Each structure stands twice: as structure tokens, then as C-alpha cells.
Amino acid sequence: MSALAFHMIGGAPDPVAPFSHAVEADGWVMLTGQMPFTGTSNTSDYPETIEDQTRQTMANLQTVLTGCSLTLADVASVRIYLLHFDEDYVRMNAVYATYFPEGRRPARTCIGVSGLARGARIEIDMLARRPQPVVEVAKTP
């Protein structure tokens, strides 16, 4: 087992608590939940609608993925936290579905919560896996 690598990504929003943007072990990269901050300051405004908050949260996650040399295609699992579950679930899903092609969607859990940092309506975290190199096996005669 390899040592843990702790990633802080330039251009990603500043943490709202004591955590790393991502932690990596043995090719697995756990991305801390991102909020819909519109800038790198964790006091940046949030967009108003759940659709725009979902887009901004996904953009912030893509910044972290890119900083780890990964893409959405490397994401294996997603957890979504919604402050207003009944009100926002369908509208959030309509936006979320545009980020992953059918047949290549990560495993996912969506949870209604009683509160999120700074009054956000959504938070999303991810688990990604580094692509594994293809090893060719020499054929013996």
C-alpha cells in the first residue's frame, strides 16, 4: 500500500474547514465535497438556483480533478447532499445527468440533509480512480 498523498489544488475554492481538496492512496482519489462557490474564496457568493448551484459545484469538482490529472471519466462514485431534497432533486438530476454519458455514469448516492456550510443547497463529493496502465503479456511459442 502506498503512502497517502494530500492534494491542495490551486484555483479550487478555499476549504471551509480543515481538510485537503483530495487524498490519494493506491490510485484511488477521494475528493472532498465541494460547494457552489463562484470564486476561490470560501466567502464567495453562491448562484441562486439549484441548477446553477449544481453547475458551479461540478465546475469546482472538475477543477480539483484536473489538478489531480483526472477527469470526470475517472469518477467511480458520487455522493450528493441536498438541503431541499424534495424541491431540488428532479431539477438537480436534470443538470447532473449532462456531465456523464449514459452507460458510463458513476455509482451514486443522493442524501437530503438538514444543513450545509454557508447555506448552500448542494454539496457533492467524488471517488475517482487513476487509469491503470495496460500491461501487455508476451506470448510464448
Summarize the structure.
21% of the residues lie in helices and 26% in strands. It is of the alpha+beta class.
Q: Kindly, what is the distance between the CA atoms of the first and last residues, rounded to a whole number of angstroms? A: 35 Å
CATH topology: 60s Ribosomal Protein L30, Chain: A
Order of strands, main sheet, comes to 1-2-3-6-4-5
Largest sheet: 6 strands, mixed
CATH superfamily grouping:
RutC-like
Query: How many beta-strand runs?
Result: 6
- Uncertain runs are none
Order of helices and strands: EEEHEHEE
- What would you call the structural class? alpha+beta
Alpha plus pi helix count: 2
The CATH class is Alpha Beta
What is the number of domains? 1
Percentage of β-strand residues: 25-35%
- Bulk shape: globular
Instruction: Summarize model confidence as the mean pLDDT.
Output: 94
What does this structure look like?
- By secondary structure, the chain is of the alpha+beta class.
- The protein is 21% helix and 26% strand.
- The chain has a single domain (5-129), classed as RutC-like (60s Ribosomal Protein L30, Chain: A, 2-Layer Sandwich).
- It contains 2 helices and 6 strands.
- It has a 6-stranded mixed beta sheet with strand order 1-2-3-6-4-5.
- The radius of gyration is 17 Å and the shape is globular.
- It starts with a strand and ends in a 12-residue tail after the last strand.
- The mean pLDDT is 94.
Highlighted features:
60s Ribosomal Protein L30, Chain: A; 141 residues; 21% helix
